[in-house]
Amino acid sequence: MSSSKENEQLMRLAIEQAQIAEENGDVPIGAVIVYQEQIIGKAYNQRQQLQDPTAHAEIIALTQAAAFMENWHLNGCTMYVTLEPCPMCAGALVLGRLDRLVYGCDDPKTGACKSLYNIVQDERLNHKLEVTSGVLEEQCRQQLQEFFGRRRQENKNNQ
Fold this sequence. Notes:
Layout: H1 4-23, E1 30-35, E2 38-44, H2 47-50, H3 57-69, E3 77-83, H4 87-96, E4 100-105, E5 130-133, H5 137-157
Parallel strand pairs: 3-4, 4-5
Antiparallel strand pairs: 1-2, 1-3
Helix pairs in contact: 1-5, 3-4
């Protein structure tokens, strides 16, 4: 299990990925996947860039990690993501059989690991992940709040 210092260090990398998403006009969410202390996937939201509703940071990072492992079973892997995953991404984490999920802030609107659902620890499914939440929570939340604040202001100015 990773120490809180390691969790914070890797979450900072996910926050850097989220910044890239924002620079590209997308919601600032970033994800990093680690296997045996090596980063094997890192990504940011690309829904706007790719015009693809499935181009979430988590999904892109999972694809990279599976390519690295040459296997869709990602046993021994941990995902670090700035925002609690949605139902699609939480389901993909279960299907990918990652060991752990570490995320920054809860998502009260679409969160599927604690807030609305708990897909990643549902006893009815064939796999469960260990979950750590609240890593650099305030920094992750602030990044999202500032992004949406700017978006609301831009929309207001354009009316």
